[in-house]
Amino acid sequence: MKVQVRQEGFCTIVSIQGSADVGASAALRDAFLRAVDAGATRIVCDLSKTDFICSDALGVLITAYLKAHGRGGFVRLANPQKRLRELLATTRLDHLFDVFPDVACALKDA
Amino acid sequence: MPPSLPKEGRGPSVPSHPTETPDAAGPRRREACWTEEVLPTRLTAIRESERKVLARLAALGYGEDHCFAVRLAFEEALINAMKHGNRMDPSRQVRLAYRISPDRVELRVADEGAGFRPECVPDPTVDENLQRPCGRGVMLMRSYMDEVIYSANGTEVRMVKYRASPVRGFPKSGRRC
Question: Is the pLDDT at A109 greater than 80, yes or no?
Fold first, then answer.
């Protein structure tokens, strides 16, 4: 798994490439914590190149959501592929996160 | 001493390295053998076993949806065994067994913990639990596998995914107490 963090205006884009599996969730947690500790409150997670996500990694996204939401911000999910969309529906986390078809849409009104 | 698995899947001895044991069911399914491993309680130990399982699935021509489902359930079962069962105690072990046939994938995971009652795990899909960062493992296993059966004390789980079954997960959490 590769995590890239970049800034677009007031928003922080976290892109996850590959598998967010149990062996990668610690690195994912570090990336999100660093972003949040640096003051990020408007976070878009680009899932367009994410092929797998375990419950540990889902927990990282939820923790980031709670931190950002607590400061008046958000964590939005962009472009999850078919199996991840189904996973979000199965867990009903698509009721917690706003899910957008791509990063550009997620950045609108941000 | 490593935890036991259901009798059906036990080999002649506790292996310290991966071993394959003949199928007790007899010649009808002689091609499929159980592979048994004893893992240390260390999350990074999961990947190597997972790689072997996925390689065998690919060799038998299972599709990506089935591989995703099995991988998810495999990880969740082992994470649960290490985190919640063995409580990350490095002196405890997790016993894993898997048998991958052309028509089904069978997984067994046993920990050395105190056990639990899976039917009492709070439903993570209800609104009041959506913000909880953990507690989705059992629900995901039930959603993505066709059979998920716990031993009476909850220290062992047996799961089956049939090749002919639908591939996508759907909520099957159903808290019952």
Answer: yes
Cross-chain Cβ contact A95/B127 below 8 Å:
yes
Residue with the two structure tokens 């909850």: B154
**Domains (ranges, CATH) in chain A?**
2-107 (3.30.750.24)
Q: Please tell me the least confidently modeled range out of B5-19, B58-72, B91-105.
A: B5-19
Interval A11-19 mean pLDDT = 97
CB contacts of B75 in chain A (<8 Å) are 21-22, 54-55
Whether the model pTM is above 0.80: yes
- Set of chain A residues whose Cβ sits within 8 Å of the Cβ of B127: 95
**Cα A99 from Cα A78, distance rounded (Å):** 6
CATH number belonging to the domain at B33-162, selected among 3.40.50.2300, 3.90.230.10, 3.90.1300.10, 3.30.565.10:
3.30.565.10
Show the tokens assigned to B113: 């913990």
User: How large is the C-alpha radius of gyration of chain A?
Assistant: 12
